[in-house]
Amino acid sequence: MAVHEHPHRHTGFRFPSLRRAGTAPAAGETTATATATRAYVFAGLRLLTGFVFLWAFLDKTFGLGYATGSGKGWIDGGSPTKGFLGGVAAGPMESTFHDWAGTAWADWLFMLGLLGIGLALVSGIALRLAAVAGTAMMALMWIAEWPPAKHLSDGSASMSTNPFADYHLIYAIVLIALAVAGAGATWGLGKAWARLPFVSRNRWLL
Fold it and tell me: pLDDT (tens digit, 9 = 90+) per residue, 182-192?
């Protein structure tokens, strides 16, 4: 009688291959998820920053009782720039800001800047213009507060906590980043705005 030898069959456990099982996300899927997340983060930052500018405009216009007291708003005859510019007490433009404080052109320019930047950010259109205008505004306000000064012109302590980086600088960087990232396309009208013929011909309007 012939004896036939059968091959041994291994019945032990084997770890499944992640590649064959498809449990590892594809590189394209990971990239798409990261891109979408980044777009939502920038959109949220854009809306919050826009609200900061819009709220400043509304409070200074109507005297809502926050930075501007009730009855002291622009529509009540108050000046949006007189208190801030008139109170400048340090820096190379101290006397210049005092001359500008409360003038009609300074009030209108400042308030239109707040309104225009706020609307651009909330709607997601003209972010490049908003970045330029907002950076110029923040630069002037930085000079007005003059963080490098340890003492004011009267000799008292300035209470500055950093000689360079303050919130005006942070806002300027945020505005530039939003424009560079094209943050108006998500939760905004950026895509529709970019398709308009006059915007397509003038890319600086994006």
Answer: 999 999 999 99
Calculate the CA 77 to chain-centre distance: 31
Tokens of 190: 């950026």
CA distance 168 to 180: 19
The per-residue DSSP string of the chain comes to ---PPPPP------PPPHHHHT-SPPHHHHHHHHHHHHHHHHHHHHHHHHHHHHHHHHHHHHT-SSSS-TT-SGGGT--TTHHHHHT--SSTTHHHHHHHTT-HHHHHHHHHHHHHHHHHHHHT--HHHHHHHHHHHHHHHHHHH-TT-SB-TTSSB---S-SS--HHHHHHHHHHHHHHHTGGGSSSSHHHHHHSHHHHH-GGG-
Phi and psi for 151 in degrees, rounded to 5?
Answer: -135, 150
**pLDDT tens for each residue of 42-95:** 999 999 999 999 999 999 999 999 999 999 999 999 999 999 999 999 999 999
pTM of the model: 0.86
